[in-house]
Amino acid sequence: MTYFLDLFMSGLTRGSIYALIALGYTMVYGIIALINFAHGEIYMIGAFTALLASMVLSAQGMSGWGLLLSVAVIAAIYAGMYGWTVERIAYRPLRGSSRLAPLISAIGMSFFLQNYVQLAQTSNFVLFPDLIPQMPFLKPIAGYLNRTQVIILLFTTLSMVALTLFIKFTKMGMAMRAVAQDMTMARLSGVNIDRVISSTFIIGSVLAALGGVLIGCSMRQIYFYMGFLAGMKAFTAAVLGGIGSIPGAVIGALILGFAESFAAGYISSSYRDVVAFIILIIILIFRPEGIMGQAQTQKV
Amino acid sequence: MSVIRQDVSLASIFWSELKSALLATLWMCLLAFPLMTLTINPTEKTFIFSLERMPYLAGGTFVLSILWRFFLKRRAFQGITKAVHQSGGLPEDLTKGPKPTWVTVVMGLRHKRLGFFLLLAFTIVLPFVSSPYTVNIMVTALIYVTLGLGLNVVVGVSGLLNLGYIAFYAIGAYTYALLNHYFGLSFWVCLPLGALTATLMGLLLGFPVIRLSGDYLAIVTLSFGEITRLVLNNLEVTRGPRGISYIKPASFFGIDLNAAPKEFLIKWLGVDPSMDINKIFTYFIILALVILTIVCVFRLENSRLGRAWLAMREDEIACQAMGINRTRAKLTAFALGSTWAGLAGVVFASHITFINPASFSFLGSILILSIVVLGGMGSIPGVILGAIVISALPEQLRFFSQYRMLLFGALMVLMMVFRPGGLIQSTRVVHIHKTKGNGQARLKALTGAPKPKTGGYS
Amino acid sequence: MSPADQYPRPKGGHDLILNAIGMSMVFGGLVALNGVNLSIERDSVTALIGPNGSGKTTFFNCVTGIYKPTRGDVILYPAANLPSISLKGLPADVITQRGLARTFQNIRLFNNLTVLENVLIGRHCRMEAGLWGALTRNKKTRAEEAAGIEYSFDLLVTYGLDAMANELAKNLPYGDQRRLEIVRALATEPKVLLLDEPAAGLNISETAALRDLITHIREREKVSILLIEHDMSLVMNVSKKIYVFDYGRLIAEGPPEEIQRDPKVIKAYLGED
Question: CB contact, 8 Å: C168 with chain B?
Answer without folding.
Answer: yes
